[in-house]
Give the backbone structure.
Amino acid sequence: MLNIILMGPPGAGKGTQAKKLIAEFNIPHISTGDMFREAIKEGTPLGKLAASYINDGHLVPDDVTIGLVKERLSKSDCAHGYLLDGFPRTIPQAEALESISKEIGREISHVIDIETPKEELVRRICGRRVCKKCGAPYHVINIKPKVDGVCDICGGELIQRPDDNEEALSVRLEAYTKQTQPLLEYYQKKGLLTKFDGSNSSDLTPKLVAFLRG
Ligand code: ADP
Ligand code: ZN
């Protein structure tokens, strides 16, 4: 069973790799960042709460995030595998995930860490654009759309995420170093962690697929 956690700093390319892997293995993509952005777009109470943290680069509180993931992982489409992208991000989240996944008989099988140098993260995030409608990722230099400012896939408008500015990014990188990086050791000790070089994203996909096929 592929019950996967995809880890890595903001800008490592988790979202890009996740989209390829879920298509390859036909498992649901559980991105807490996407779930929060969806709630923000819909203007729900969860969205309003999440926005107050996300836009400045801070993490959303653990109890909120854990509750959201618990509900999602319990749905029937996760019975034959799932890919978590951006969760867990703190030790309490990892501990909660361990008990939730045990409880429902869907324990983690692989933890993948995508390592990327910091200068590269900043370059990627500051040039990143996303489709307002479908969320597809672009980059002003590396992944240009066919028509400027327009999504190749759905024709939606390309925008910059509110947290993709230098100020919020430095808060996100600090949160990653302080709160998320300790998880690498946590999963290393459990023998679940495998590290990959994320500096070239098109090389990485076939490597991840081969690794997961075992
Ligand atoms: P990135 O990896 O580029 O920072 P994400 O889309 O994964 O992007 O997350 C965007 C924001 O959503 C985070 O900066 C944080 O505010 C919030 N978020 C996402 N996942 C979590 C989580 N597991 N715990 C707390 N906050 C989260
Ligand atoms: Zn689109």
Notes: The chain has a mean pLDDT of 95. The pocket of zinc ion (ligand 2) is lined by residues 131, 133-134, 136, 151, 153-154, 156 (CB under 6 Å). The first strand starts at residue 3 and ends at 7. Residues 157 and 169 are 23 Å apart (CA to CA).
